[in-house]
Amino acid sequence: MSDSNFKQKYKDRIKKRNEEASTVRKIVAIALTIIVIVLLIGGISGYFYVNHALQPVDPDDETQKNIEIPLGSSTSQIAQILEENNVINNALIFRFYTKFKNETGFQAGNYQFTSAMTLDQIIASLKTGTVRKDPVFSVTIPEGYTLEQIAESYAKKLKFTKKEFMDKVNDSEYVNQLIEQHPALLDKVILKPEIRYPLEGYLFASTYNFYIEDPSIEQIVNKMIKRTEEVVLPYLDALSKLDLLEGEQTVHKAITMASLLENEAKTKENRRKIAGVFYNRIEEGMKLQTDPTVLYALGEHKDRVLYEDLEVESPYNTYHVKELPVGPISSFHKNSIAAAANPIESDYLYFLAGGDGNIYYSKTLEKHNKLKAEHISGE
């Protein structure tokens, strides 16, 4: 073999080795990259898994669950009982958490837990044997309260301010999230620019019990909206059959109507009668001309609406716009939404509240004016 052939073969072998070494390095680099990615994904997944397990099962669910912890139960058995009753997310993580914090001395007994409780709250109850039956506090929202009044009621008892509550419920991103979560109740219409507050009328007036010391604004709003769903949605079929409410925005129109009825009368019977009057006026192309909408448009409370007040240009003022105002003007009682769904049919087009507390109905303007002269002082 000549020197030139030997040198060429030697070069070829060196080149082949270099190519093989390069291929091996690439394979090793790819393998290492895959391993790092798998470990990274596993680490991230593990973090989210553990973090989720450490959170309350449902921060908005304060329904009390009666749970018995039998005498002699181990931490593992207690964790399993709590997971089966949806009080904690994960029994294994609960056990690790108690070991990490060196928590022991859990007591047997009958407990009232909620899915909204944190692990620390649950552990504290188990250690002391505390059985929480009574709410930490209650808030009563009277029927007819506006959103601002609701915010003020909560601000008096909790750490956030009225402004912080209002800022939250008026945040379009947050409201969009609520619309996605409650599609049967909430519609994009509540985000129209001319609507003063998107959630006006959608936070149901009731007494709310809270079993945690410092609920967030989101927890409060979710609790109230769920209550609104419970009250309003059963009437959806009846509401959708009414010619003036059928089609798009049925629920929004119905809640708007309920808020008007709430402010016009106190009894179930009169609310149904007035609902019939309002529907008759809408069908006849007449303006509703209801004073509570004027006050809402003005943004103030007045004992008496003046003629000059009726001129305010607002999509809420029913002396200015035809049909219903652009949105609800307050919260409402259950029988107000019932009245909106089941009006008493009549030929009445007018009504007035007399100074004696009674409501008088009439079919003609002439009769209405006569009743006004008879029953309203100063007329």
From TrEMBL:
Keyword match Transmembrane: yes
InterPro entries: MLTG-like
Keywords of the record: Cell membrane, Cell wall biogenesis/degradation, Lyase, Membrane, Transmembrane, Transmembrane helix
Residues marked Important for catalytic activity (site): E264
Enzyme Commission number(s) from the entry: 4.2.2.29
Keyword Zinc: no
Transmembrane region(s): 27-50
Domain of life where this protein originates: Bacteria
Annotated catalysed reactions: a peptidoglycan chain = a peptidoglycan chain with N-acetyl-1,6-anhydromuramyl-[peptide] at the reducing end + a peptidoglycan chain with N-acetylglucosamine at the non-reducing end
Bilayer topology term: Single-pass membrane protein
Protein family: Belongs to the transglycosylase MltG family.
Cited function: Functions as a peptidoglycan terminase that cleaves nascent peptidoglycan strands endolytically to terminate their elongation.
HAMAP family (alphabetical): MltG (MF_02065)
Name of the protein in its database record: Endolytic murein transglycosylase
Lineage: Bacteria, Bacillati, Bacillota, Bacilli, Bacillales
Gene that this polypeptide is encoded by: mltG
